[in-house]
Amino acid sequence: MGDISLRRRLDPALQTEVFEVKLGDEYLMSSLFTAAEVELARLALAAAPDAGLDVVVGGLGLGYTADAVLADQRVAALLVVDALDEVIRWHRDGLLPLSPATAGDPRCRLVHGDFFALAAGAGFDERASGRRFHVIAVDIDHSPRHLLHPAHAAFYTAGGLERLAGHLHPGGVFALWSNDPPDAAFVAVLETVFATCATHVVSFANPIQGGTSANTVYVATAPASAPADA
Predict the structure, then answer these.
(1) Would residue 123 count as lying in a domain?
(2) What does the alpha-carbon distance between residue 185 and residue 27 come to, in Å, rounded to a whole number?
(3) Which pLDDT value is given to residue 151?
(4) Which CATH number covers residue 59?
(5) What is the pTM of this model?
(6) How far from chain centre, in Å, is Cα 44?
(7) Which domain does 124 fall in, by range?
């Protein structure tokens, strides 16, 4: 997908330290804009039914989604899947502000792997094939339409989402971050697979451009177990 790089700089206008990740010449993420990454975790966990939660986060990045997941004491275990070994090494080497809390939490395991291939196959835990989870939250592509790689496109179809839902417990939660406004066509696809679907627009201050910006978080729940026969 291109060369990935981590930058740390002092923003002279804001007088704050900024961490940025670039893929080639394209900005992937910045520590100036993390509200929606945190809300991805918060909204997903708010829809989860029980304590003792097993969670998957697709995409490690700067670690804000994973950190927000671990802040919830109901979480028993977290797998964070990232296709880029360099990103995992940044956190294991403590290069980012959230690295010690994330990589050092005994509930958290960083997994080097292709999230989309794992979702389409035997699952996210190489130690336990077929393991199911209560929450799967994803922040990898820019949106369901603006992908980092064309191979990801199959994930956002009904078939791809059905395979993803197969890794959830009944009533489990799938949540997705998007840089674009809510996409009615994608919501319609979600509604063919999941029992419920909601979109949340997360607005936040934009100190670079001024004013506010917004991202979207989709939250969908898998069908609950069928009621037992009387």
Answers:
(1) yes
(2) 26
(3) 95
(4) 3.40.50.150
(5) 0.94
(6) 10
(7) 34-221
In sequence order, which residues have a C-beta less than 8 Å from that of residue 21 and are 6 or more positions away?
4, 5, 6, 7, 27, 28, 29, 30, 61, 62, 87
81 located within any domain: yes
Q: Both tokens of residue 208?
A: 């670079």
Largest CA distance in the chain: 68
Containing 116, the helix (H) or strand (E) segment is helix 115-120
* Residue 213 φ/ψ, nearest 5 degrees: -125, 175
Which backbone phi and psi does 21 adopt, to 5 degrees? Answer: -115, 130
What pLDDT digit, counting tens, does each position of 141-185 carry?
999 999 989 999 999 999 999 999 999 999 999 999 999 999 999
> Cα–Cα distance between 134 and 227 in angstroms, integer?
19
Tokens of 47: 């829809």
For the beta sheet containing 26-30, the strands, ordered from the edge strand earlier in sequence to the opposite edge, are 4-11, 16-23, 26-30
CA nearest to 28, candidates 80, 82, 109, 68: 82
Helix or strand (DSSP H, E) at 88: helix 85-92
E-assigned strand segments in the chain: 4-11, 16-23, 26-30, 53-58, 75-82, 108-112, 133-138, 168-178, 196-205, 212-221
Query: Is 4 a member of any domain?
Result: no
Domain count, the chain: 1
- CB burial of residue 150 (10 Å; 0-12, 13-18, 19+): exposed
Q: What is the DSSP letter of 200?
A: E
The secondary structure of residue 167, as a DSSP letter, is T
Kindly state whether residue 178 falls inside one of the protein's structural domains. yes
